Amino acid sequence: MVDTDRITGTAKELGGKVRGTVGDLTGSKRDSVEGRVREAQGASENLYGQAKDTVRDAAEHVVDTARDIGGKVRETVGNLIGSDDVEDRARRAQGAASDTYDRAEDAYENGGRYLRQGRREAASQIAEYPMAALLVAGLLGYGIGLLIHGRD
To answer: CA within 20 to 30 Å of 84's CA: 6, 61, 67, 111, which one?
Structure first.
């Protein structure tokens, strides 16, 4: 589709040539100059229309190419997804992930239970033997102090 600027530009350019030629033939400098000015305006309008056509054509080409590439990607992905091997692998990976999650959830629950049992047992031992617990806590504190600051 040709841009309207190209059509009007060509018409102005032709009109300007005619007016300039008439001005040259009749000796009218005014008509000659105005004709040349009109011819230049028409030529620039025509070039502007050509540039718009070129940009529009390039944009259409880019859109067409993007659609082609998108179609090829969609087709390739569809072929992969439709493949029994890929679907089987995906199902196995999903099953393995589900199993791992279940085991992690069980470990978390067991860990919490063991922690509560250990806390109760420690509290029971501390309540039953407070002096021994104080001695053990002091020795642990001294040992940590040695580890952090070293022996002098």
So the answer is: 67
The values of phi and psi at residue 151, to 5°, are -90, 135
Rg (CA), the chain: 45
Question: Which residue, chain included where needed, has tokens 């009218």?
Answer: 28
Asked whether 42 and 7 are in contact (CB, 8 A), the reply is: no
Question: Two tokens at 4?
Answer: 């309207």
Report phi then psi at 28, rounded to 5: -85, 105
Q: Which residues contact 69 (CB under 8 A, 6 or more apart)?
A: none
Q: Which two tokens stand for residue 101?
A: 């999650």
- Give the separation between CA 106 and CA 112, rounded to whole angstroms: 10
HEC string of 22-63? Answer: HHHHHCCHHHHHHHHHHHHHHHHHHHHHHHHHHHHHHHHHHH
Is residue 27 left, alpha or beta, with left meaning phi > 0 and alpha meaning psi from -120 to 50? left
> pLDDT (tens digit, 9 = 90+) per residue, 53-91?
888 777 787 777 887 787 777 777 766 665 566 667 777
Name the token pair of 13.
């350019």
